[in-house]
Amino acid sequence: MRIVLxxxxxxxxxxxxxxxxxxxxxxxxxxxDLFRANISQQTELGKLAKSYMDAGNLVPDEVTxxxxxxxxxxxxxxxxxxxxxxxxNVSQAQALDETxxxxxxxxxxxxxxxxxxxxxxKRIAGRRVCRNESAHVFHVAYKAPKQEGVCDLCGGxxxxxxxxxxxxxxxxxxxxxxxxxxxxxxxxxxxxVVTISALGKVDEITxxxxxxxxxKADDK
Length: 220
Prior knowledge:
The protein is α/β, with parallel strands linked by helices. The protein contains nine helices and eight strands. A five-stranded parallel sheet has the order 2-3-1-4-8, with helices on both faces. Strands 6-5-7 form a three-stranded antiparallel sheet. β5 and β6 (137-139) form a beta hairpin. The relative contact order is 0.18.
């Protein structure tokens, strides 16, 4: 299967992508991994992306698309893949369709992880990270430390990262609603979107996703 995973920040896309890719025996392709791999391997695309990043600019869509295309052409993706973090906007979604079309392929499903906005804020803004090298993560509601502000494992100070503040989370949600959410309507027009609730335990969400994707898999 060829799947795109979408959802707001804090929806658990990375976690679910790993489990779903394993269950479906397809590679998990994330934008973050693509950038890190190309930059660390000093590929031409990696050097180009780094030049934009070093200048404090956004990496152009065509560079991201080229990285994704190169990864999708690797042997392990021959029978499918799960895209996480790409496409991020409608122009990238259109480019992905064109890229797949030239190879005689198309997407099988777009899995939309649905989470209420207040829950997203609660999930992200409640995170606390240990300042020590271990960087253990706790959560004020879901995984509270025994002593407030102190890491259970090493005694280090727990703090809230700047990008986990409520104001920052709400700004990230605005960007998601403006740039990424429109791709859901784009793919709905193609009959590809499968929406599930991303509330609950990790394994429950994975099972829900597999059941929702089942009919798509059966069509293959």
